[in-house]
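Anyone up for a design puzzle?
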């Protein structure tokens, strides 16, 4: 079953949705934006001083920091995906449309860690509506108190 998230057609619409979540959870939200092929992080092939992509579009990328517990950073890429960092755990290639649900899961208490003895490891698990689950290995040798507090048995 495919998840049904509201469509966020632009980086600007995703930033607006993140700001609404920050307000809902009373978090401080800081946004920095890069507009133009010469300024976005994935545009290594852009011509020097060229702001447009070869197809004539103007790419828009944003980085949003949410101060709170846990600390979250969201880099919204022009290619309709995002990299979300939760207490130093990075989730790559999260669909832009899923970012609000991801943040609601984190701040709403659904996100949790799972550990195993064999093979050893600690994973941050972020469930989303529609039976989608994002899971990443916690590589830090010293997990944050938030990561340790939200542990569930495997």
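Challenge accepted. My sequence:
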């Amino acid at each position: 079953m495919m998840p049904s998230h509201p469509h966020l057609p632009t980086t600007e619409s995703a930033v607006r949705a993140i700001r609404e979540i920050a307000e809902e959870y009373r978090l401080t939200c800081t946004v920095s934006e890069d507009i133009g092929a010469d300024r976005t992080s994935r545009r290594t092939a852009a011509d020097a001083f060229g702001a447009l992509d070869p197809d004539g579009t103007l790419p828009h990328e944003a980085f949003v920091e949410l101060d709170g517990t846990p600390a979250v950073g969201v880099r919204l890429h022009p290619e309709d995906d995002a990299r979300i960092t939760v207490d130093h755990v990075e989730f790559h290639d999260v669909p832009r449309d899923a970012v609000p649900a991801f943040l609601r899961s984190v701040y709403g208490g659904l996100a949790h860690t799972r550990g195993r003895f064999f093979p050893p490891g600690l994973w941050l698990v972020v469930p989303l509506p529609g039976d989608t689950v994002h899971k990443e290995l916690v590589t830090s040798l010293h997990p944050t108190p938030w990561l340790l507090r939200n542990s569930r048995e495997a």
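A detail worth pointing out: The chain has a mean pLDDT of 84.
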